[in-house]
Amino acid sequence: MADIITTSENIGINDPKIKAIAKRVLGACILSAQKATMHAVNARSFPMPADRGAMESLLHDRFVSLDSSKRAGAVARVRDHLAAGPAVRAALVGPELAALDLQDSRSMFEHVKAIPMAPTMRLSRDLLAAPRALHGPSGLIPLQPSKRLGLRIHKVRCVDETNPEWGGDDEIALGGTTVDETGDVTKVAEFGVRNDFDDGEQKVYSPPKEFVWFNLSEGTAWPKSYFVTLVLAEKDMGGLSDFLNKMLDKVKTEVITALSTAVGAAIGTSGGPIGTIIGSVVGWIVGQVFAWLKAWWSDDVFAPQTVSISLPSANATFSGGAKDSLERTLTYQGFGGTYAVTFDWILSPIAGGT
């Protein structure tokens, strides 16, 4: 029976232990964002960590780029939350993190690492070595030997122009970040899509635009999973792509640290289940962080979207033996506007890749 490739446009985590670890890292991210928020109005009481590479510093730089009304609203929401008591805080970040002191100069991740990991999060090395169903199937698909895997952009459509529509046309760019089978994070350089989008207009790529290629010969274990985070940005809003790349890199580092703690030893990243776990957890956390920023900071960006694909062996194809997948569409909403990005996956017999 032919191997089946699975794809997903919704990154989720089904395994309860991996989910608990992911929530622990997410909780530290949220606390870092709260601390960065309060530092902006009371730097003495909420000091930044000395390390400029800390999550708090990254989030603070983003926070101060927002307009004053959004910053004021965010400060009020965070201040009310901090005053609401441990039960309310535990509902957001979990009971083990709810009592952490945002007024300590150490980073939130330093605090979290000092808290012993609960037995319910402990993982065996054998468990990590076995394939795990981290996200459910959404699709496709039988296989044949391929050397590269690519993601292509077919079109970008302006469903509804961003606000204020009277102020001019949208200038849209697309970039992103990838996580390969070994857990390596790589930036996809931002490129201009079109500088004059109005309602109903679209940019069609014929032939499809090659967004990224993966080298299937990297890594030593199958199955192999690949993750692509696509960042759609209105150029006037600025800085989103760089912010995302830095966040993904930081989150990946913390995820690997947390997984190593759960196993009790440093984990390898040669591919197979480990790469899948890292990519799934990183994609899920980043999506949750952007949702938090939108709700608490009113940072109404086009939230990055992560898609994934899993190849069980070197001999897989898409449905009916095809070398390319069905086209998929991602919908982006932000700044009062809506855009749709249509893409597909493709297998190639030609060696190479990122």
Would you kindly provide a written description of the structure presented here, covering whatever features stand out?
There is one protein chain. The protein is of the alpha+beta class and 354 residues long. The protein has one domain. Helices cover 33% and strands 25% of the residues. The chain has a five-stranded antiparallel sheet, with helices on one face. Strands 5-2-9-8 form a four-stranded antiparallel sheet, with no helix packed on it. Strand 8 and strand 9 form a beta hairpin. It is flat and about 60 Å long. The relative contact order is 0.21.
Keywords, please?
flat; alpha+beta; 4-stranded antiparallel β-sheet; 5-stranded antiparallel β-sheet; single chain; 9 strands; 354 residues
Unreliable spans: 131-144
By oligomeric state, this entry counts as: single chain
Measured as a percent range, the helix fraction is: 25-40%
Number of strands: 9
Q: How are strands sequenced across the largest beta sheet?
A: 1-7-6-3-4
Shape: flat
Structure class? alpha+beta
Task: Name the helix and strand elements from N-terminus to C-terminus, one letter apiece.
Answer: EHHHHHHEEEEEHHEEE
Count of the domains: 1
Largest sheet: 5 strands, antiparallel
**Number of helix segments?**
8
Rg over CA atoms: 21 Å
Output mean pLDDT.
Answer: 86
Separation, N- and C-terminal Cα atoms? 31 Å
